[in-house]
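LOG
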Amino acid sequence: MKDLTHKIQFAATQLFFRFGIKQVSMDDLSRKLKISKKTLYHCFGNKNELVKQTVHQHFEYIQVRLNEISLLPISAVARMMQAAAFAVEELSKVNPSMIHDLHKYHPDVHADLILMREQSIRKQMIENIQDGREHGYYRLDFNAELISQLFAHQIIYITENWAQNNSQYAAEGVYQFAIYHLRGITTESGFQELNLLQKS
């Protein structure tokens, strides 16, 4: 049963990312998986529960990848750029209507996702800033916790605004904002590192 549940979640993720949530019915999913609706509803009581579990599963995947990036033996600036590149890659896979549908039709799941994203981004940013300061890449004259919170809010705003306006520029916005952020907090050596990374 556990394998089937994972299989359903994987298929749902693919369909939601491609078409949005509203456009994918439980009938569509059962047909794609070649299983009965009874079996599908045995694993997930309703569509909202499926959406919730699917979103949480994908969020956990994102967390694993970000944690892997945070452990890379490279500079804090390079890790920040890697994380931004990963975010761009992931956003490019998502139909804007998926975020819109989450907000409109599954507000409880959407609220959970916003909270999880904010906490995750803040934690990643604070750890990145601490490491960057220890190695002389980031300045000491700013409030790391406040800047991390502002960064998290701005990233969430970019992606939410992208979904509401059906814009295709969220990925570019996230990447450019990450560079903008780094230019604001780096020391001279951190700035040089950033320039080298952008050129390469």
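LOG (cont.) second protein
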Amino acid sequence: MTTAIGKIVKSNTHIDYVCQVYGPGELVAQPLPTDYAFAEFVAIELSGHSSSPGALIGVIYNTLLLNPDFGSLGPRLSPRGEQEIFTPDYLSETATLVGIVALGWREGGVGVYRQGVPGLAADVDAPVRRLSDDELRAFHLDAAGRLSLRYASVLMGMNNPLVPQLLLTLIDRLVTLFPAQSRQLQVMRNNVAWKSIVQPAG
């Protein structure tokens, strides 16, 4: 069973989304920090007229904390415990946001996974959930059953300083899911690690 994480609140580009993590009281089972950690794969469920419209498949690459207390230098009129009773709306303004880059999609109905830039975009309030290991394996296999990381070029093109570490973390996880391809993945890991050192210096 996969874990519900939050909902989409905005997008920066066609493949770059911002998800607001569910806060206290929004779900019976609150998502844990490990459920929306750096480099976790997620599914953004798509809406549509069919019974199985599909989902975008993405990875968490950033975290942003929103806190209305920041910059408020005056003394608090009441402790936090009392604020939960008297001003619950104020507390709801605090939020954890995670950045998600869409790396592919799952076709509705047939359940086939594709890597690349998806044609469809998610809606505001689209639910986001953590991907299971079985789904993660399926996403990384091409039509011939071979390991595929076609999305690596999309990540490298983001020009984000976190991307090299993101790729290294993803590769390390894939080694545990695809032990038979560990040598191939290690070659790719060494290449990414080398570029992360050489390119900033150049």
